[in-house]
Design goal:
- This protein is an alpha/beta fold.
- The chain has 2 domains: about 5-140, 3-Layer(aba) Sandwich (Rossmann fold), CATH 3.40.50; about 140-310 and about 350-370, Dihydrodipicolinate Reductase, domain 2, CATH 3.30.360.10.
- About 35% of the residues lie in helices and about 20% in strands.
- The strands form 2 sheets. The protein has a 9-stranded mixed β-sheet with strand order 13-12-11-10-6-9-8-7-14. A 5-stranded parallel β-sheet has the order 2-1-3-4-5, sandwiched between helices.
- Helix 1 (about 20-25) crosses helix 12 (about 325-340), helix 4 packs parallel to helix 5 and helix 5 (about 115-130) runs antiparallel to helix 13 (about 350-370).
- Bound molecules: nicotinamide-adenine-dinucleotide (NAD).
- Nicotinamide-adenine-dinucleotide binds next to strand 1.
Amino acid sequence: MSNKIRWGVLGGGGDSLIGVLHRVAASMFDAYQLTGAVFNPNHEASLKFASEIGIPTNRIYKDFDTMVAEELKLPSEERIQVFSVLTPNFLHFPMAKKLLESGFHVICEKPMTMTYEEALELETIQKKNNNLFALTHTYTGYPMVRQMKMMIANGEIGEIQKVDAQYYQGWINPIIHDSELRKTTWRLDPEKSGISCCMGDIGVHAYQMIEYMTGLEVKDILADLNHLYDDNQMDIDGTVLLRFNKPAKGVLRASQIATGEENNFSVAVYGKKAALKWEQENPNYLYLLEEGQPLRVLKPGHDYNSELSLDGTKLPPGHPEGIFDAMGNIYKGMAKAVRGEDYNPAEFPSMRDGVRGMHFIETAVGSHRDGNVWKSL
Ligand SMILES: NC(=O)c1ccc[n+]([C@@H]2O[C@H](COP(=O)([O-])OP(=O)(O)OC[C@H]3O[C@@H](n4cnc5c(N)ncnc54)[C@H](O)[C@@H]3O)[C@@H](O)[C@H]2O)c1
């Protein structure tokens, strides 16, 4: 009998953006077996998709509640162990809550919930039930992101003075100027997306990355968001000033109307001795800047990289690692945790990242609403 982890999927159907990333990631280290799913709210569509990708349809359930009820009837050695929640945002909390309460481990897409209050409730439930929870801030799985984190932790750039994270996309530009077109994306609907579009969707990636890479805690923020039109309830652009628990200061810039930009996410951390810069669209290059020295470019797979970085590198140097590999590394870390093997907590973002992320989103929206004022986290 296979010793793969029995894996269930909620959302992520053939019509989705993110489903394929999770399926490839889960298959990357031969650790998971896709065992059951509700890929789509339409059962026929779910069944059709399961047939198309060649998985048995006997555990393709008609809806989420039926799935949980039927899985709980199975003996534990047959039951799904880990579920991935890949639905639009408004379903993350009710699904993750019921799954954790029912004893399943959860991998959840970001933003973790719709509100900070829900995030705190989910954290309480996880602690009580003692299950595992991974939040897929995908970019933390890149080898050179992990390397940047470890070099900062080892003091290689000295005390941090300045942090600058930028996450620019342009995909909302063709949509935002037409109020009818705006209705075609759930991300601009507060009922499905939450109180923020730009900060909730991509600003939160940048926020989590800043805390992940630097080990600093954001203490206070001041946000200036842009909705562009009075009849658009959701921010689609914004700049957030950051103050940390140490003297460093930072800026987080996020936009979905940065015309022509694709997925231009970059992070620069400036220390007293040196600086490090990483860019998502060229994720295999980590730039080391030192005064009076030529720019150095660090790459995956070399012995000079940390154990955490090398653990996320599958092939010798020169074989680029991409977004699928980054997500694969998060699934790999979670698989180690599920199997009770040793793992580094930096291998996958946790419930705590989700709680802090939701606090950030709500506080940024509050800071803007109240007249661009400083707010504490
Ligand atoms: N980690 C990342 O970098 C990243 C990137 C993109 C999206 N996301 C997150 O992933 C989630 C999904 O985003 P997306 O772009 O794939 O959305 P999408 O709209 O493309 O796909 C959503 C999927 O959920 C399914 N679905 C909707 N209601 C459902 C229900 N009741 N039961 C089962 N399935 C249901 C839809 O049929 C579809 O397959 C969002 O929360 C988003 O923020 C994360």
